[in-house]
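Practice problem: predict the structure.
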Amino acid sequence: MKKLLLILFVLVFISLKAQENYPKNDFRSPLDIPLYLSGTFGEPRTTHFHGGLDLKTEGVEGKNVYAIGDGFVSRIKVSGYGYGNAIYITHTNGYTSVCGHLSKFNDEIAAWVKTQQENLTSFELDLEHLDPSLFPVKKGDIVAKSGNTGGSQGPHVHFEIRDSLENTINPFLFGFDIKVQDNIKPSLFNLVAYNLSGDRQFSNSKTIKISGSGGNYTVAETLKLNKDAVGFGINTTDKANDVSNNNGIYDIKMYLDGELMYNYQINKFSFDEGRYVYSQCDYWLKVNNYQNVHKCFVEPGNKLDSYKYLNNNGYIFLYDFEVHNVRIEVSDFHKNTSTLNYKIQRDDSSAFFQESSPSFQEVLVQGKVNWFKNDDIALKLPENALFDDVYFKITKEARTGVSDGFQVGDIKTPIFGTFDISLKAKQLNEVLKDKYLLVYKNYRNILKAVGGILNDETQTIEGKTKGFGYYYISIDTIPPVISSLSVSSGKTMTNYKAFQFRITDNLSGIETYDLFINGKWAVLEVDGKNALYTYYIDEKVVKGNNQLTLVVKDERNNARTFQAEFVY
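Answer:
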């Protein structure tokens, strides 16, 4: 029996090790220019970890994008947001490559995509599980041109490699690291200390200046800490050779008196894990001050699978009053390493963590379903919504209009996923009842629509939301605004290759947009970040007089129509 268990253990170990041995020579670059990065794998973004490499394209669009290996096009996605135009290729070795923000697909794929858009009367497409015989590719085939579509903030190609379970994997593990020159050590900017004791909700964190350069950093004086449990975070970014932009780091280790306490290393993750960035990094410092402070400890609700080693989840317990040495090592994938050394000591007479006395109504418990309900408002937070216990309150503010306003929790507290919220209406107009919606002010004090539906029985608007903030019920009766940037009635358009419109909405957001040329539905391409909508002239436009009709509706079904008769 023992021998059998040993054999099984060895087989499992070998299997796990085999999974980590990614092929180094199977793939070529998706571009035929030197690789310079504007984004690295696992880099913390505001709401997620970056799922691949962002490859610079010399500041222009239209570079050839190649199949990195033999395989077939298994998925095509078209959107005015996110990855924009994206192509997914499943390769013969079982991995799938993804290239996003493309300006266009190759001619064969582009013609097929346009046919699908017209058949489905939708610019937005997500065509999955394509037949392998539809678009087979060979390594080095041109599949697209680089661009700036979707959420891209400049010309580049977003490049990913995924496994069969849709986990995204660091492309450097497949040999792409040797295509990027990097001998620069990560930069360390400051240290953040966190109170992790039982009263952590009353005195949370403190930023500490560090000194040094060239990979060697220190804190000037011993940190006198007046708590029995503490954690640390390091504000850090990395650079590669010959680029000015900052990128994310790859590996962090923290040692206490020479003993490893924490090791974070990001090699792959599932997209369901993306919002754990709110816990891995200090949420409020990230969204409010644009700092990338990686916590060197793991909160109870953080289930990210990127921790190679944890001792007490990285918590440091100061049960004695001796001086202890802490070392934090930050590395990039090319093993360039920067080190911060400092000393800590328990000192109950210190005022390091200064306590406050916040008022609260109840404690929301991490790992459990949490309910809050009174006559005006109801919340339901699922068991995975919180990263730690939260001291919680709701403050009511009298407002004129449909409902009062409510400050729900502390806006500095991040939420994983969504939670249910409903607000009681003070008065509702039955004629306009489908126009009511929930809104909130986010961390930048910007008003955002939550949407929601009316519960006639309780006279509440019920919806799902992603964060704490200031909520109330509003009403949207204003249709979208359509501004034509080219075509108008009576205008001769012979010299134009495309018509463009700018479409905006005051609150609930654009829901549908349909363009008709001479009564036939036409593809209207969307650039969401610029609210720009483009029709590229095709066979639907005839010589002579033409009729154009554009119908746009927002999420509350307010509609606007633009019409023009033009000459071509």
